[in-house]
Specification:
about 120 residues; alpha+beta; six-stranded antiparallel beta sheet; about 40% helix
Length: about 120
């Protein structure tokens, strides 16, 4: 189980991550582009993924992952906070950030974390 506050902290620990309230939810962004979102009082969060990753997650753990409303056709995944493994969510958030961040920022992040 992961709380929304833990989810937000994991996301905000990524380089240049910023939180911005939008549409009555909290969006997590890197340089203005959304990579994750959720409502502090909700039981689910939404994370950017590729359509291929989305299909794998839904097939492997349909009780945890589902296609996100409105943006699911683009690969976004809805994640149940009460069932997701913390490390798996951290990996998903990091990959969502990587898909969204500028390439130079991703290279700098990779260089710091591979040393």
């Amino acid at each position: 189980m992961v709380t929304f506050d833990q989810f937000r902290t994991m996301a905000m620990d990524l380089p240049e991550a910023a939180q911005e309230p939008t549409w009555d939810i909290e969006t997590l962004r890197v340089r203005g582009r959304i990579f994750a979102m959720g409502a502090p009082d909700g039981d689910r969060v939404t994370v950017k993924a590729s359509p291929e990753d989305q299909a794998e997650l839904l097939a492997a753990e349909p009780e945890v992952f589902s296609s996100a409303p409105y943006v699911g056709r683009h690969g976004w995944v809805s994640v149940r906070l009460d069932l997701v493994d913390r490390e798996e969510l951290l990996d998903l958030l990091t990959e969502a950030w990587r898909r969204t961040a500028p390439k130079r920022l991703v290279r700098e992040f990779d260089a710091r974390h591979s040393a």
